Amino acid sequence: MLFNNPEALDRNSHKTPSSLRDIVLGGQDGIVNTLGVLLGIAIASNDLRIIFAGGLAAAFAESVSMAAVAYTSTVAQHSLYEGELAKERRHIKEIPEKEREEIREFFRQKGFSGNLLEDAVKTVTAREEIWLKEMMKFEFALEPIGKKKAVISSAVVGLAAIIGSLLPLIPFLFVPISNISIIVAIWASLVVSAIALFIIGVYKAQTTIGDWKKSGLEMAAIGTLSALVGFFIGYLFKTPAVS
């Protein structure tokens, strides 16, 4: 049984993957932020060179910034975990009965009672490292995060952000190639971005729990409306047409 095997309990500790969060965070922010800047510049200047310069600057600045934030926030979580771990380690040594009672109360709330409750408490508290890990999860909902995970998270967020950031620029590539107007490229950029946001929303729902249509439409609507803020600000500074 699991409660008679501390090693099995430790191996079966659930670790929530962060890849979904990183992909959604990077992809959504990359699309929305770059699209907003791009639409503002496009409607204000109507100059393809400035549109590409501003769009690319926003895309790469956003991606580097998002990657850096992902790294520093993950490192901060690691520091928080280490700080609380040291505090719990001290408590186990100084007030073990109080800490043991906290474990007992957790299992009691889960429906354990009698001998089963005491066996669970005894198993968890038999080894200090397992006891510490369970206390961190029960009391603080914290899992250990290493520097390697911070680097991976940063890379995933940065990559998702750069891919998302470049998508709104694609329609503008066809302005000189197919001789379409800037206005047509603006609308095409909105459509491409909305579709990409919808796909991210669907991926989020299928990876977790939820209605994929609702999640996709919600992501597309929120992202598109946010980006349109940039469009309307750019419209206020629109360069008058030369007659």
Describe the model.
This protein is mainly alpha-helical. The radius of gyration is 25 Å and the shape is elongated. The chain has one domain. The chain contains ten helices and no strands. Helix content is 81%, strand content 0%.
Q: What is the succession of H and E elements?
A: HHHHHHHHHH
Total strands: 0
Pick out the low-confidence regions: 1-16
Percentage of β-strand residues: under 5%
InterPro entries: Ccc1_fam
GO molecular function: manganese ion transmembrane transporter activity
Membrane topology: Multi-pass membrane protein
Transmembrane segments: 50-71, 150-174, 180-203, 215-237
Which helices and strands occur, and which strands form pairs?
Layout: H1 6-11, H2 19-45, H3 48-94, H4 96-109, H5 114-124, H6 128-140, H7 147-166, H8 170-178, H9 182-207, H10 212-236
Which characteristics define this entry?
single chain; mainly alpha; 81% helix; disordered N terminus
